[in-house]
Specification:
alpha+beta
Amino acid sequence: MPEHFKARTKRILYTLYQKSNRELWEFNFGEGKEGKHKSLEILRRLIKKGLVGKIDYKAMDPNHACKYYLTEEGKNIAKDIAKEVDEHKSW
């Protein structure tokens, strides 16, 4: 089942594939508050699809006190994205 993702979603999956257990601020990609909001919405959708998992920590704001990682299904999809990015593209 081939999945088609937009560029920002592919970049998030690629980033998680390179190193797991990343925090929300690592997905801003230099876009500030608006980038953080976009990334949070994408991560929520990826969690719903079962591609990304979330580890919660105790803190005042639950969105900033968690780390994200790829599930097994997410790793399979991200592997193809990483292969494509490493061969043809650069961010």
